[in-house]
Amino acid sequence: YHMILYVAGLQNIPAEIEEAAQIDGASGWQVIRQIVLPLLAPTIRLTIYLAVLGSIQLFDLVWVMTQGGPANASNTMATYMYQFGFLRTQLGYGSSIAVIMFVICFSFSLIYQRRVMRQDFGD
């Protein structure tokens, strides 16, 4: 999924800018470092944002592979929520974990919008 975003970001970079840099004598690495990466920065920030939110909500892969692992070594907040909410039938505890996950994701989203999106869209 992230590679599709990167490909779309790379396709949005005008070829004329890269050609102008090469005509001015920039090497391939200089073009990447000084032109491509700064123009790709909004896409990079978006993929980091999506990866962080995805890692907070990670459940299916961990549950299928280890179900929390030996001695809870690979438990995430989502697996704790599932274990307490459904397997141990402590619905209040599972619900409180869900609320904590929501607060973490929501606060991270607000911070992202206030700091990063202003840089990307000039708001």
Descriptive report:
- The model has no long low-confidence stretch (mean pLDDT 87).
- It is elongated, with a radius of gyration of 21 Å.
- It has helices at 2-11, 15-23, 28-56, 60-65, 77-87, 91-121.
- The two termini are 27 Å apart.
- With 123 residues, it is mostly helical.
- Helix content is 78%, strand content 0%.
- Helix 1 (2-11) packs antiparallel against helix 3 (28-56), helix 2 (15-23) packs antiparallel against helix 3 and helix 3 (28-56) runs antiparallel to helix 6.
- It has six helices and no strands.
- It folds into two domains: 1-54, no CATH class; 57-123, no CATH class.
Show the helix and strand layout.
Blueprint: H1 2-11, H2 15-23, H3 28-56, H4 60-65, H5 77-87, H6 91-121
Helix pairs in contact: 1-3, 2-3, 3-6, 5-6
